[in-house]
Specification:
The chain is an all-alpha fold. It contains five helices and no strands.
């Protein structure tokens, strides 16, 4: 590890890195559990964003995090599960679905803003006048 990085890190973090052997780059292998952990973290952050945010755009960003977590899992299982290209194809479909979802959702959000002058999802009780 470069010296300028070790100077920035606290001793506790450096000890953790050494104890777990994270400095041995050649010995470190990124496997399926690593991808699943990243996917689970993204999924949890997306669910947290959807549940806690009142702004409709932030809710959409949480939904995008969930879709990206699913993409990571599709590609990881495709790579490590022997599914050939099935996971990548599913991920491409999810990306297309996410693009269409964003286009439709932003159009709805713009209409809501024109009607109510805000986009707080808790304050919008009826969409039809």
């Amino acid at each position: 590890m470069p010296e300028f990085i070790t100077n920035l890190l606290p001793d506790v973090v450096l000890q953790y890195i050494q104890d777990w052997g994270l400095l041995d780059i050649g010995a470190q292998h990124i496997g399926l559990p690593h991808f699943l952990i990243v996917g689970a973290i993204l999924f949890a952050l997306g669910v947290f964003a959807i549940i806690t945010r009142k702004n409709a755009i932030m809710v959409l960003m949480g939904l995008e995090l969930i879709l990206n977590a699913a993409n990571i899992n599709f590609v990881a299982f495709s790579r490590f599960g022997g599914m050939n290209y099935d996971g990548q194809i599913a991920a491409i479909f999810v990306i297309v679905l996410a693009a269409a979802e964003v286009a439709v959702a932003l159009a709805i959000i713009l209409n809501i803003y024109q009607t109510y002058k805000h986009i707080n999802v808790d304050e919008i009780v009826e969409l039809k006048k």
